Amino acid sequence: MYQLPVEIFDEIFKYLEFDKISLNSCLLVNRLWCKVSVKIFWKSIRNYNTLIACLPDESKEILYENGILISTSMPPPTFNYISFCKFLSIKELNYNIQKFFNNNQQKDITEKMSKEIFKFLIKNISSLKELTLDASIINIPFFSYPETFTYLSKLTFSSNTDPKLLYQLSQICHNIQTMYIPINDVIPNELTYLISLQQKLTCLCITQFNNNLGSINNIFYQNIPNTLTRIFIYEGSGSFVPLSFIGRCLNLQTLMLSFPNNNSSKSINYNFKKLQNINFSKLQSLEFRNKCPKNDLLETFLKINGRNLKELSFGKSNDSLNIIISNSCPNLKKLFITNLTLETLEKIFNRCHYLESIKICCEENLSTKDLFEIIINDSPVNFYELQLINVRSKLIPEELESFLVNWIKRIPQKQFFLNILTKDIRILNIYNENNKKIFKKYVNHFKLGHIKSR
């Protein structure tokens, strides 16, 4: 019988990386499948019984001396599972160790356990890819095993992390591509230095909760490399993230800005004004969650950058802004807006010829009958998905069937996806018997997606 090369199996199983159940099944097929799939299955720590069984005798002895009894009946591990690990979360590790030992150990003993196990992990992991730190943990011996962290590509940590750890990382890790940083009470110089050295950094996610950081705040953001292609900024209530650093990132492809509803509009407008005239020639995805800058600033920005956008999302928009979008963003494929009138929807359909999906937050009572008619008569040829939030009109069987009869006449034929998020599903009357019959009748042309209450 012909046997596929191991390399082919390896490539296939990579697609199951986040499917724990399927990977676990692959382990049981035969020796070859087990040998290949176990490397992917154990990219994260999967089983703490196995982890403890892998500990060397000297580590078990240290734990025993601290009153931690480990069963000696566990069989020796089949593989060097720890060498396969690529993703490690210190916080998750500590939580699971406490859980494994039934939370009965004193805090100092638990810390000794965690430290001993972590020391074993970083000694045996060949090349870690993702690391999540815990601000409460100190004395991690990064310098002892620098090769484990040399090719670290993703790092998650808070600004409260021990500065000594950040300094160690700055000396070892120069290949980080993605950083997630919640900024709390302080931005230490070691954090600024660490991020300034990351000349391969392409993705940065920052959540800032404190606005009392003074000039340190500006110094930190001025030292962020201009290599970024994806930026995600979450402002906490009353905080201020200076956006001017984004203007240096001319290769930017994705930008997400989240301003809380209770933050000052004046502050948001002042901040965004620094970006309104900059040409981000590679920008394809733009999202504003919650509050957004005023329309004239956005109009200027979209006149310069709108033609490149493929995805655009506004958590709060108005009809004037929606018209600006229709005039400035002809190449959109995905759009999320609020306060949309049917008249403006027609304009969007007629001007955004590549639109495939639209998500609408219905602030007013939007007629599904009229909405279906506009989709049939005006939507672009590639359009196939409608997502409705807070819709209050009932889904009438006759209207639904009339829409689907006309939908299947379109060329090229596409399956229509409808997703609804509402405060009360019962208002929509979606699951009455007549609608169910229609769903079944047009199952090859229509798919009802996530229907749920908010």
UniProtKB/TrEMBL annotation:
F-box domain mapped to chain residues: 1-45
Q: Which PROSITE patterns match?
A: FBOX
CDD domains assigned to the protein according to its UniProt record, in alphabetical order: F-box_SF
Q: Which domain of life is it from?
A: Eukaryota
Which Pfam family, any one, appears in the UniProt record?
F-box-like
InterPro entries found in the cross-reference section:
F-box-like_dom_sf, F-box_dom, LRR_dom_sf
Q: What is this protein called?
A: F-box domain-containing protein
